[in-house]
Amino acid sequence: MDRESNLNRAETFSFVNPWIRYFLFFFSFLFWVFSLLIVGIGVYAKVQKATTVRDTFLVDPAVILIVVGVVMFFITFCGCIGALRENIRLLKTFSFSLVLVFLIQLVIAILGFFYSDQTQDAFGKFVKKAIVHYRDDLDLQNLMDYIQKEFKCCGWNNYTDWSWNLYFNCTHDNPSSERCAVPYSCCTAVPGETVINTMCGFGVQAQTYLDADKAIYPVGCADRAVMWIESHLLMVGALALGLALP
Ligand SMILES: *[C@@H]1O[C@H](CO)[C@@H](O)[C@H](O)[C@H]1NC(C)=O
Ligand SMILES: *[C@@H]1O[C@H](CO)[C@@H](O)[C@H](O)[C@H]1NC(C)=O
């Protein structure tokens, strides 16, 4: 009896401030659609991908996308329907999940901070594989190009890491036409240049750091990429906490 009257009251009274309610609904809905998109991309990648990328990563990135998308789908679904119907149980599940996500991120960020050497090693192994297979897979190539352009860096430790790749290897008897080169994504942009000179990195591995600095960004991506990942992990965590508090 008591329970029933409680439920009735829950339906007639509005527990939740309407502004917070619409805010919650709007953002949950946004991320709900986003989660569907992530799952879609993951499934597409899983069906389409060649095997080289899967071998390069410890875990198939398509599977990570699908798992993250599905988890996000259920969390945002709780937020969406909970806000719409003022279902307290769903809203509690929603905020509990967000706090959980925040705590997991916090733990990862703290671990990443204390084990930053190990984190760097793990990413380093991945980037090394991506450099070795740069010419074997278009997605890896795009990814490495993106990282190098975005962070204005070249290789993992420095630009000479491109010798890990068969085509760019700087050994004297390498028959490749790209011997001692680095991909053009390492190159500094020339002001006013409209057509990208894809050969701007040719021969730079044979040059000293200071000479190479004129055509490319010779610094490795290690420090910059890890710093970026840590700062963004914190940001996503803060976002989750901000949504969970109301
Ligand atoms: C590039 O990094 C490697 C490994 O850390 C180091 O041995 C090498 O001397 C560096 N090369 C230059 C030109 O800085
Ligand atoms: C470049 O190729 C040579 C010969 O195949 C190999 O011995 C060397 O280890 C390669 N360089 C790097 C940095 O992997």
TrEMBL record:
<dbReference type="InterPro" id="IPR018499">
    <property type="entry name" value="Tetraspanin/Peripherin"/>
</dbReference>
<keyword id="KW-0812">Transmembrane</keyword>
<dbReference type="Pfam" id="PF00335">
    <property type="entry name" value="Tetraspanin"/>
</dbReference>
<dbReference type="InterPro" id="IPR008952">
    <property type="entry name" value="Tetraspanin_EC2_sf"/>
</dbReference>
<feature type="disulfide bond">
    <location>
        <begin position="154"/>
        <end position="170"/>
    </location>
</feature>
<dbReference type="InterPro" id="IPR000301">
    <property type="entry name" value="Tetraspanin_animals"/>
</dbReference>
<keyword id="KW-0472">Membrane</keyword>
<dbReference type="GO" id="GO:0072659">
    <property type="term" value="P:protein localization to plasma membrane"/>
</dbReference>
<keyword id="KW-1003">Cell membrane</keyword>
<protein>
    <recommendedName>
        <fullName>Tetraspanin</fullName>
    </recommendedName>
</protein>
<dbReference type="GO" id="GO:0046930">
    <property type="term" value="C:pore complex"/>
</dbReference>
<dbReference type="GO" id="GO:0005912">
    <property type="term" value="C:adherens junction"/>
</dbReference>
<keyword id="KW-0965">Cell junction</keyword>
<feature type="transmembrane region" description="Helical">
    <location>
        <begin position="57"/>
        <end position="84"/>
    </location>
</feature>
<keyword id="KW-1133">Transmembrane helix</keyword>
<dbReference type="GO" id="GO:0051604">
    <property type="term" value="P:protein maturation"/>
</dbReference>
<dbReference type="GO" id="GO:0019899">
    <property type="term" value="F:enzyme binding"/>
</dbReference>
<comment type="similarity">
    <text>Belongs to the tetraspanin (TM4SF) family.</text>
</comment>
<feature type="disulfide bond">
    <location>
        <begin position="153"/>
        <end position="186"/>
    </location>
</feature>
<keyword id="KW-1015">Disulfide bond</keyword>
<dbReference type="GO" id="GO:0005737">
    <property type="term" value="C:cytoplasm"/>
</dbReference>
<dbReference type="GO" id="GO:0005886">
    <property type="term" value="C:plasma membrane"/>
</dbReference>
<feature type="transmembrane region" description="Helical">
    <location>
        <begin position="20"/>
        <end position="45"/>
    </location>
</feature>
<feature type="transmembrane region" description="Helical">
    <location>
        <begin position="96"/>
        <end position="115"/>
    </location>
</feature>
<keyword id="KW-0325">Glycoprotein</keyword>
<dbReference type="GO" id="GO:0046931">
    <property type="term" value="P:pore complex assembly"/>
</dbReference>
<keyword id="KW-0963">Cytoplasm</keyword>
